[in-house]
């Protein structure tokens, strides 16, 4: 039926479409990448004047001129290492304890029969609506007067003030709850017959089957913790307990601004996250997709 | 038989176990979310300060904080800017996200690379992004100025982006879209992949062209996803803080003020926590309305954030 000329023009049309699609995607890729590339390239230019001068030409994206890692050395002298330690510690503890605490309540809600269950579920679902931002100021008043085990009478300027408020998260509980509901019950029944305790069932049956949701919640919580800015800004003073986000902001606030050093500082915050993202890309994308709704 | 007996034996302490499992999260949520929320309501009717002054005890001031709000230029500017942000950013970001999702929703070579690139800003800290863009917006020799001058043959600019009262907020909007659109793209992508291929096949048999397929199949099928994306972006718009705080702290002259920046300035910098609590309650009510719209409009309540 199809004559050769028709098929040729059809194929040409299709190839043109594909070409346009690639061009469009490439242009967009440049739009999304240019600030990141600019940051990385500027960070290794050691001549501050050149960094600024190169901005008005395409040299901004090309490593030319005096190159080196002097900016990184300067940024490291801004207590970068210690702040990196703070950020990582806060993130690991928030995510680690959070996974345990949030999955346990979700397990109870999705599996156990107990008085007050539907009330508890309603409360958790309602709490998703309250944004942390709305309670930040009164919480600041509270933690300012909270005692701690070492005898101090305030939580300000500590690690735990940046960790404990973010461990329990209603939305994470909800994600776990939804996932657990879809795990078939047969396995647990079998374990029950074998005489396993509830905690054993949770550890041996539910946890191994739930790796995807643990990864999802871990990624969402880790990103939130790593990028958290408003709260640490208010509850930390010196560099002792401050995370990187507050550190780079205060470095940025110093005048005169040393753009090369700032870009090195920014690169050192960004590169580790980008590497982790590239390694676990599928998981990242899946996590974000799961915050949406189906259909 | 044995299982049944066990199951019944377990019942008695199932309630105890359930509350034990729930207790850690529940206590944390009560202390760090419910309690401060209730305290915010209470404080909003007082002149409480962050560090109490023994000479000036905290007093109940009734609705004074809520009345004063409407004469507070920074508050009004903040609320207006949040709505301005919603009106501009939500439509642009949502349609751009849908466009990107459709563009990368194909099994052709290199697709994964493009998806990764578009998503990369999402995993980058907003504080970092704000500083890099502050550099790009540099008044004299900044890249954005150089670019504008190049494409307009020297007709446009240079502009003082972050110091110009008219330009500062659009400048912040641009980088916010750049950072956030990848997130919505991924949600749209998941939505697109749920649409049954048979619907497109049926449309093609009926002779529908690409545009008709988009308006008659894709858009209606993505209705819930779109509602979710639009309303969650709206909520995020009201939480706008990091980039503004880093780049301008709400200036110049409140031109880029937002509600959250104002709350932090009043409650933390000026230590007027009573007044800041009143603003927080207004902020919460706005978010509540958007959230309720979301839960009301979308079919399955339990599937909604």
What is the highest CATH level, the class of chain B? Answer: Mainly Alpha
Number of helices of chain B: 13
Terminal-residue CA separation of chain B: 42 Å
Strand-pairing-aware structural class of chain A = mainly alpha
| Largest interface (CB < 8 Å) | A-B, 102 and 109 residues
Radius of gyration of chain B: 25 Å
Query: What is the helical fraction of chain B, as a range of percent?
Result: over 70%
Overall tally of domains of chain A: 2
CATH topology of the largest domain in chain A: MetI-like fold
The helix/strand class of chain B is: mainly alpha
With helices defined by DSSP (H or I, 4 residues minimum), what is the helix count of chain A?
Answer: 14
User: Which ranges of chain A are low-confidence, i.e. pLDDT below 50, for 5 or more consecutive residues?
Assistant: none
Low-confidence spans of chain B: pLDDT under 50, at least 5 residues?
1-6, 301-305
> So, the CATH homologous superfamily of the largest domain in chain A?
MetI-like
Overall shape of chain B: globular
The tally of domains of chain B stands at: 1
H and E string of chain B: HHHHHHHHHHHHH
Distance between the termini of chain A: 40 Å
Q: State the major sheet of chain A.
A: none
Structural notes for this entry:
The complex is a heterodimer of chains A (295) and B (305). The two termini of chain A are 40 Å apart. In chain A, helix 7 runs antiparallel to helix 10 and helix 8 packs antiparallel against helix 9. Chain A contains 14 helices and no strands. The relative contact order of chain A is 0.12. Chain A has two domains: 58 residues; 203 residues, MetI-like (MetI-like fold). Helices cover 72% and strands 0% of the residues of chain A. With 295 residues, chain A is mostly helical. Chain B has 305 residues and is mainly α. Chain B has one domain: MetI-like (MetI-like fold, Orthogonal Bundle). In chain B, helix 3 packs parallel to helix 7 and helix 8 packs antiparallel against helix 9. The longest helix of chain B has 42 residues. The two termini of chain B are 42 Å apart. Chains A and B meet through helix 1, helix 3, helix 4, helix 5 and helix 7 of A and helix 1, helix 3, helix 4, helix 5 and helix 6 of B.
